[in-house]
Amino acid sequence: MTSEHVQFFHDAPLDAAMSESLAQHGLTVVAVGSASRAHNDAWLSAVARGFLEDEPSEVRREAFVGHTAHRRKLGVYDSSSPQPEIPVATFASWATELTVPGGTVTASAISSVTVAPTHRRRGILRSLMAGELRTAASLGLPVAVLTVSESTIYGRFGFGAAAAVANWEIRTRRAGWIGPEAPGRVDFVSREQARQVAEALHERVRNTSPGEIALPGGHLNRFFGTSPDAEKAERLRTIQYRSPAGDVDGLAVYRVVENPHDFSESTLELSWLLAATDEAYAALWRFLLEMDLIAILRASELAIDEPLWWMIADQRAAKITVTDHQYVRILDVPAALASRRFGTADTIALEVDDPLGIAGGTFVLTTDAEGRASVEAVETPPPGVPLLRLGVRELSSLFLGGVSVSTLARAGRVDADDPARIARVFQTVGAPRLSFWY
């Protein structure tokens, strides 16, 4: 994706229906640009309040303007408020690239969604979300994506849980290693050295990992504690894996929490692990699991089908919990489905219901032996073709391959003429995953 595409999305005019809806409640929605430090400071204060954070420091405020310049930031203002300069609702989005099975698709990534508790139940979130989804669709972005703090909010806007993550707690001394011996070497590097190679390494990983998006601005500095507003960055340690050919194929960043009662029973908290090869994956995990003085290793935002499960001798050494993480909202059914690859050659029909009226309709999906798809909008489903009736929320959950059509049919979430046959069309090789929050 080019910087021109990102800027085009950033500068798009506000949806007229959204502005009118909010105006009926005496509210004004405004795009908050990066030129005004005062406007950005007030917007950040509203976001911090919405996520129950401390009032931002001066250092954080100064850094914020730079690393969010690419974001399309909206603020909703109440002129009758005692603090009219601070928005009563916030919304941010930016154009990015989402990896899908066998390809990529342009997406609107959404973040910093807040509504002040003083202004609840006025339809503010609905106006903002519907308006910005319409804008993204009108600009040709086939999907929207977000990570959520409250998982029950976004289904009514057509978002479906699409990429779950696993959170691990491993008793390292019990786990044991039965995985392969990697031929390269693991070394400690500075946080700055890791930061320099992380973006290119993430792109290598992302292009083969459905569910991942391009790294948002500012995230690398957050991961490695290399920005002026980083808190307790000195606690972070970074390691890299280098192949025999000399290529840096893996990175990990972690911190250690000491056990005050027994130093040899400390806990390692893994923040982020990137591995572009199987050898890098094995080497980094083995190094972390066999580190001296560590009794517990905690890691989050892992895939639900991690190979690590088959690399430890005692699987009962690991406690794993699975949670929803990356949500997807399809905005253009033909463009979204044509961007990915499918499991088998077939023809099926889809009847999609969209409560916001953006992506509903009836479609015929035809896939070939290579998994490529063509999608045609039709008036009625053709006879003899198995039909899948579902909401855009459920189609969005199916999009990355994180759930089977058969499973959704058994759960009563979709109605399928032949669930097993349709499931084979949507099946994927591995589970989707997103390795960070945004």
Low-pLDDT residue spans = none
In round numbers, the mean pLDDT is: 97
DSSP strand tally: 17
- Report, as a whole number of angstroms, the end-to-end distance: 19 Å
Q: Beta-sheet strand percentage?
A: 25-35%
Q: Which class best fits the helix and strand makeup?
A: alpha+beta
Oligomer: single chain
| Cα-atom radius of gyration | 23 Å
Major sheet strand order:
1-2-3-4-5-12-6-11-10-9-8-7
The amount of helix comes to 25-40%
Summarize the main sheet: 12 strands, mixed
Molecular shape: globular
Order of helices and strands: HHEHHEEEHEEHEHHEEEHEEHEEEEHHEH
Figure out the total of helices. 13
Observed structural traits:
438 residues; alpha+beta; 12-stranded mixed sheet; 5-stranded mixed sheet; 13 helices; globular
Task: Describe the protein's topology.
Layout: H1 3-10, H2 16-23, E1 27-32, H3 37-50, H4 58-67, E2 72-78, E3 89-100, E4 103-115, H5 124-138, E5 143-147, E6 160-171, H6 172-175, E7 185-189, H7 191-206, H8 219-224, E8 236-242, E9 248-257, E10 266-275, H9 278-289, E11 294-302, E12 318-330, H10 333-338, E13 346-353, E14 361-367, E15 373-378, E16 387-391, H11 392-398, H12 405-410, E17 415-416, H13 419-426
Parallel strand pairs: 4-5, 10-11, 13-16
Antiparallel strand pairs: 1-2, 2-3, 3-4, 5-12, 6-11, 6-12, 7-8, 8-9, 9-10, 13-14, 14-15, 16-17
